[in-house]
Amino acid sequence: MPSEENPFIPGKPASATPEFEEPQCPQGPLGSKPDQSGPRPTTPTGADSADGQTEQAQQGEYHTTAQGGRLPDTNHSLKAGARGPVLLQDHHLREKITHFDHERIPERVVHARGAAAHGTFVSYGTASTVTKAGFLQPEAETEVFTRFSTVVGSRGSPDVARDTRGFATKFYTSEGVFDLVGNNFPVFFIQDAMKFPDIVHAAKPHPDREIPQAQSAHDTFWDFVSLHTEATHHTMWQMSDRAIPRSLRMMEGFGVNTFRLENAAGETSLVKFHWKPENGVHSLLWEEAQLTNGFDPDFHRRDLADAIEAGAYPRWELGLQVMPDSEDETFEGIDLLDPTKLIPEELAPVTSVGMLTLDRNPENYFAETEQVAFHPGHLVPGIDVTNDPLLQGRLFSYLDTQMTRLGGPNFSELPINRPRCPVNDMFRDGMHQTAVHQGVAPYKPNSLDGGNPFSSKGEHALIDVPQPVAESVKERRASASFDDHFSQARLFWLSLTGIERQHLAEAFIFELGKCYEETIRQREVKNLAAIDRGLCETVAEGLGLDVPQTTEQPAADVTASPALSQISGRWPVAGRKVGLVASANTPIEQITVVRKAVGDVGMVPLLIAPRGGRLGEGNTAVAVERTYSTMRSVEFDAVVLAGGIETSTAIDVLISEAWRHLKPIATCDDAEHLLEEPGIGLDDPGIFCGGGPEEVTKQLIAALAEHRTWARAEM
Ligand code: HEM
């Protein structure tokens, strides 16, 4: 109430007197006036605080309107009599239908199909010599959210399309959000962002019939890449096994573009980011991928979620290739600003700097996986961009597209995008503003809000490395060092093993074989001659084309990079799936022994039987997870056939596909007879017969560590 001491003065300026000069040191805002208060802090669903996840979820047991009024009936609209017309006054009906009508948001223009998980990144501290980024200092632990995606398909497209995969990680660091927005290939189709709409228009379904979905096997894609030869290296990766990963957990990730790092002493270096999966890099076979897309279009997202649920947490080491920040931004003759080039690990080894573990599945797909917004310009102190013209365009594109996709400029306030450090950006208002800002002076300089917010002086401030810009003229032109489009395509080819090369050539034959225009096939085959004569001849023969007469010769001085091959070594088998076929005639001990051996190494046994229900009696009975009609070989990495199974078409198909797809197969007891009909030899590589159930299962697990029985591919 106004009084003599505190008279009512309309427009009383502030709760404290502002300083005469612009304030120079950080201090709190002057504060709200006594008559002011924002809304009581309430979660989107009416709870008092947003401390926990349950407060963000729906509240209470009763069905309510969006305003919290309890509803007695949601099954009948309000009508003029049971058979009469619906009344306009039925607010519940209109609110329910209206909200439903607006449930969809635009899908991403690229990378629309995705799956994601939460996790933690633990720094080894080994990067502190090259960057001052806080999350890469010793023992730093940072929460992360990683989204994997395909590029071309729409949101409902199948998971195992032949495509590049996105691998985007949001680090919620104490210095702000850092997004590492990479792919599972180290190179890109184009050298300049200006071409991005072109490559995407070419790869997307044809604009007339909108087919094919999520595929590059069509005319417009091959028309573009055969004419635009800077795409050649990426196209080689796209035709390789890397484009059909066995699992999102078994993919490498690459930042692709070169970044500039700065350490505490102000020294800079040029760096490429790598993710190395603990489970190794493994792929599907093409026939397997095609079957999988029909049998389980959600194969990759199911695999990721199942593995996390089973406790087989996927892990990747973050690695850095560190190159000197030289004036020409080139390393060993390779232009670091050209995103169609990689740096072979044999020339610049990858140093491990930390471990990413994904250990939590999202609670709600839309709120998290769909609404997350990555941006290669979300940087932290110690990490800066380079002049790579692709990266420069990306810096514009993501924010721009997210404005439309997420409906306005405030999407960084969505729970999944919120930084985990103080934000005082002076941005105000706009669609879907959820912050309740205080003060009157979202501008600088000001004295009315105490000069807040203050610019950081040095520590924890974002950096713009004062990189000299060469004397130049304004022009639309690429550096001459970007002209070589073939030698690294050849490098990739030479780095692959025989079976990988065979798969790659077969992929070209398949994809070009799907093009209607022979000119396009001929043009691409001519390009292949500049990569490798043998590859060109194999593909031409497969397509029934003449080998082109060309003066273009493959580069002579290319050295292979064995690190690019994915067939070598032995890898953890955790999270792999083993199909165990049994029947009511199988002794229950056999089932128990195999399941235990499989489970002991973190793999998932799935019991298959002719019918559903349980096998065995009483306490030892085991639930049947797949029946003959719900299973298909592509779901399993290996198959164990228990005793007591009768021959059937379903089992023949299972075994012959598993054999053709180079999967280990083990038999117990009399199950050897099942191999006769599909014509499989007991001595074939990767076939384990004749021992007890535990012994053959262990042999099968040991074989699985090499991913597939590669020796069988030679047969
Ligand atoms: C090095 C090359 C590139 C890589 C590694 C890359 C990677 C990615 C990834 C991983 C995503 C999915 C992010 C998510 O999960 O939400 C994405 C989305 C996207 N990318 Fe790129 N991209 C590259 C080049 C470009 C270029 C050159 C442009 C445009 C000039 C571009 C525009 C977009 C757009 C518009 C989205 C959708 C973003 C959204 O709606 O949230 N990308 N990119």
From TrEMBL:
SMART domains referenced in this protein's UniProt entry, alphabetically: Catalase (SM01060)
Residue numbers binding heme: 108, 147, 196, 394, 398, 405
A single GO cellular-component term on record: cytosol
Polar residues compositional bias, start-end: 39-67
UniProt EC number: 1.11.1.6
Alphabetized CDD domains for the sequence: GATase1_catalase
Highest taxon of the lineage: Bacteria
Names of the cofactor(s): heme
Cross-link (3'-histidyl-3-tyrosine (His-Tyr)): 375-398
Sequence segments annotated as region (Disordered): 1-80
Family recorded in the similarity comment: Belongs to the catalase family. HPII subfamily.
Protein name in the entry: Catalase
Native organism: Brevibacterium aurantiacum
